[in-house]
Design goal:
The protein has 9 helices and no strands. It is mostly helical and 159 residues long. It folds into 2 domains: 74 residues; 40 residues, no CATH class. Helix 1 packs across helix 2. The protein is elongated and about 95 Å long.
Length: 159
């Protein structure tokens, strides 16, 4: 997550392209609020670089442009379904383990980390087996643990 200082640095990089005008506190805070909350400084600076490297219009790079470029960069880094299928086949993963591997890869984990997690994690959609409840009649009838209740034997005086 970008700090206010880091997002101001990104805004300063944008301003360099347009005369290096001073940045007000309101501009810095507004720009910071509009950026993706999960963006890193490196991603934001790379997005500004890519915007101005491909722009010939002279238009200013805005927070929406930075967000869109970061989203495209992240999506471009994700493997395709065909690539994941090939990786699963090469690693001998099938069924639930292949599904877990695919899920980890789409979350952005590398192939080795995804394989480790697929082999060690349990399926999040799999419920644990239900534990049977005790069916002892003694525990149901004793009732001594409840306030104001006592066993019949204690009421009759041990008879």
């Amino acid at each position: 997550m970008l700090t206010l200082k880091e997002s101001t640095l990104v805004l300063a990089k944008i301003r360099v392209h347009h005369g290096n005008a001073a940045i007000t506190d309101l501009e810095a805070r507004t720009f910071h609020e509009e950026l993706r909350s999960d963006m890193t400084l490196g991603e934001a600076l790379e997005a500004v670089k890519r915007f101005y490297a491909s722009s010939a219009s002279g238009r200013w790079c805005g927070s929406g442009d930075v967000n869109a470029i970061v989203r495209r960069m992240r999506n471009g880094a994700k493997p395709s379904e065909a690539q994941i299928a090939e990786e699963c086949e090469a690693r001998g993963l099938e069924g639930d383990r292949a599904w877990m591997y695919r899920r980890q890869r789409m979350l952005g984990n590398g192939p080795d980390q995804a394989q480790r997690q697929a082999l060690t994690m349990r399926n999040p959609f799999e419920l644990p087996a239900a534990q049977p409840k005790p069916r002892s009649t003694a525990s149901r009838c004793a009732g001594a643990s409840r306030p104001g209740m006592a066993s019949l034997g204690s009421m009759l005086g041990g008879a």
